[in-house]
Amino acid sequence: MSGRWSRIIVVMALSGLWLFFPGPAQGKTHDGLSILLDGRSRYEVGNFLHLLEDPEGKLTMDEVSSPEFTGRFRRIPGSVPNLGITPSVIWARFQVNNPTDQARRLYLSFEYPVTDSIFLFRPEPAGGWTRLEAGDSVPNSPEVIPHRYFVFPLNLQPHREAACYVRIQTTAAMTLPLTLWTPMAFLLADHQKQIVFGLLFGVAVGFIIYFGVSAFKLNNPSCLWFALYLIALGLLVGIREGFFQELIPPSFKIWNNIINVADIGFLYFIGARFLRTFLDVDSHSPKIDSVLAVLQWMGLIYIPVLLFPSPITPIYSLVLVGLGPIFSTIVSIIYWLKGVPNAKYFAIGWLIGHLTSTIDFLRISGLIPYVSLMDYAIPAALISSLIFFTMAVVQQLYTYRLFANQDGLTGLANRRCLDQVLNSEWRRNQRHLRPLSLIMADVDFFKNYNDAYGHKAGDACLIGLADVLKNYARRPGDLAARYGGEEFVVLLSETPAEEAVQIAERIREAIEALHLPHKSSTVKDVVTISLGVVTVVPDQNTGPDGLVQKADEAMYRAKQTGRNRVICSTPG
Questions:
Q1: pLDDT at position 399, please?
Q2: CA angle (265, 267, 272) in 5-degree steps
């Protein structure tokens, strides 16, 4: 690996470490104090939250608000409490102080859309509580603001201090990002975020369509698996950001959790298959491919493992979500270091994507604290996939296209490429009434050369001749190609006959000047070639096939008249 790319990978890896450390919170933590409405447009509620765990989920609002339970609430450090996966119900309490002379209307947003149910118990001026309900598995109360997050209206009377309670129950991570907003500030921030994600999803859809079509037109399985990977990853972003929940009818909410879990399982399945297919792991290392195949199918089995938790679920998750990405990332980097084609960009994208997903897994497990930037972990994985995996797949397509038009031995254009370029140049020179020349060359007594020196030496001879021919096809429209066996072609666009003959003669002299020994030749004791040249001004009544045929006939006349010479022919 070059030093430059080594530094890039290190910087990218280290740049993700900011996710492990809490960022600066807005305002200070005041344990036991209320949120003071001092004219700001946004307040981080997490700095003032006190939590109570309800393992059996049987406590009522009257109980938790009673003096008996008030002292049981505890402050958890951090602007966003993160308790990981827990079967307990969590009660959260915070107080808001409105010291102004006017009533305040605020929005309380709960910004973790995969939470099953959230109840807000809002105090009323006349006493008692109003319960508002929301969640991704329950219908929202009519007063809840329609939004991809769970947004509750909160009306605060002047010169009043009010205590609010939130009851949270979920099978996802118990992460509690609560924010108080003024309505205008909330709408503005949401509008900006909608634009960003709209652009991201729009770009993703465009790439999915492109690579989906490419998969079928080019019969390229890597494109197909990449398109499916983008679909699964894009769906995960949509679910985690609440966009998917906005699109489905309320009656469909009971399926949210199943769809989320299924998408995660399919994402690991498709990702492992994409890795195996793109890097052609089976041909490089069948044993490693077998391990990746196991991880691939573990992704599908992960769906029932998550839906029906058991004592093996944490161990299974550790292997698939923890150790699996580490193993596959090491494989992709090793393949890059070994020079496996197109592995470089793939390895970078795989590293960044799995770094963000690993951090997200640690946050979900409650092993690291939550910070607001973690909201962008999965979108960051989608962006890195779009950038680096696209570069890798496009480079692979370019390589396939290059090899499809390139002779595998000499590196010159192959006959297929020659036909394409010849047809194109024929039409172009026909429009402009300019001469088009073609040189056909054949190695003298090449069969004897192979018999005397062996096929390996014969291949080396052809490669040496190809290196010479490349030097005479450098202008736009020119092309040096291997026509077949020991035959070569040089196409010279906009080149009159006299100049084409001079170029052919220089080629002949340059080949002879290589001084490749040829003891079986009756012409000279070094390798020589015979060349035929033909020049035409293309017209409507002829085609490029006749040009190749006349050049071939001229080359055979050169061989018949003594070899190691140039014969020019004019089509008649």
A1: 66
A2: 105
Name the residue type at position 244: F
Residues of the chain above pLDDT 70, percent: 93
Model confidence at 400, in pLDDT bands (50, 70, 90)? Answer: low
Q: What is the pLDDT of residues 277-313, one digit of tens each?
A: 988 898 888 999 999 999 999 999 999 998 888 889 8
Angle 348-354-356 from CA coordinates, rounded to 5° = 105
Better-predicted residue by pLDDT, 467 or 78: 467
| 420-439 tens-digit pLDDT | 888 888 888 888 888 999 99
In degrees and rounded to multiples of 5, residue 437 shows phi and psi of -115, 150
* SS3 at position 32: coil
Distance CA 323, CA 330 (A): 11
The answer to whether residue 111 is catalytic is no
CA-CA distance, 370 to 334, in Å (whole number)? 33
What's the pTM value of the predicted model, to 2 decimals?
Answer: 0.69
Neighbours of 140 (CB within 10 A): 20
Domain at 415-569, CATH homologous superfamily: Reverse transcriptase/Diguanylate cyclase domain (3.30.70.270)
Helix (H) / strand (E) containing 49: none
- Count Cβ atoms below 10 Å from residue 431 Cβ, excluding itself: 9
Q: What is the DSSP string of 197-254?
A: HHHHHHHHHHHHHHHHHHHHHTT-HHHHHHHHHHHHHHHHHHHHTTHHHHHS-GGGGG
CATH no., domain 28-181: 2.60.40.2380
Count CB neighbours of 415 within 10 A: 15
pLDDT at 414 over 50: yes
Catalytic residue among 486, 487, 499, 512: 486
